[in-house]
Amino acid sequence: MNEIYQYVEQAFAKVPDSPKKTELMQDIAERLQEYAARLMEQGKSPEDAMNKAIVDFGNLSEIAEELKGTENAAPAQKGRPGLWFSVFGSLAVIALLAFVNLYYGDQPIWFPIPSFAILWWPLGMYFFGKGGKRRK
Fold first, then answer.
1. Are 6 and 43 members of one domain?
2. Residues 4-44: pLDDT tens digits?
3. 136/133 Cα distance (integer angstroms)
4. Which of 21, 24, 56, 112 is spaced 20 to 30 Å from 71 by Cα?
5. Mean of the per-residue pLDDT values for the chain?
């Protein structure tokens, strides 16, 4: 089963070392070993089981390239710029609705009604940032 570890290490050789890389490599190697063990229980030889497990799993270079892309990505921004964008955006839309409603003054005042719907945007952004993310 050492060949499986060598195969996984070779596939991830160009990816910079990180805890995420180590965890992913370990997970893939364990899954390949479990699958190879099941194939050996079905009567395959150890070498055939390892080769079939590797072939059935697919191309690891795509996973390695994706991991390399996430490792080089810019770090997450501090603060909540989406919240501030939604606050100012909703205020701008409400101001536009108020202007249109009041400029054409022969109509009843209707702009507060859609304003309530527009205020859900920053409210949703606020609560999503507070803890709306899924917990493990």
1. yes
2. 888 888 888 888 888 888 888 888 888 889 988 998 999 98
3. 10
4. 56
5. 82
CA atoms of 36 and 115, how far apart (whole Å): 60
**Between 65 and 34, whose confidence is greater?**
34
- As for how many domains the chain has, the answer is 2
CB 16 within 8 A of CB 70: no
CA distance 44 to 100: 76
Closest listed residue to residue 14, CA positions, set 86, 70, 65:
65
CB neighbours (10 Å) of residue 39?
Answer: 19
Say how far residue 103 (Cα) sits from the centre of its chain.
45
Structural domain includes residue 28: yes
Residue 116 counted as domain residue: yes
Question: Is residue 61 domain-shared with residue 22, that is, in the same domain?
Answer: yes
Q: How many residues does the chain have?
A: 136
Distance CA 6, CA 60 (A): 12
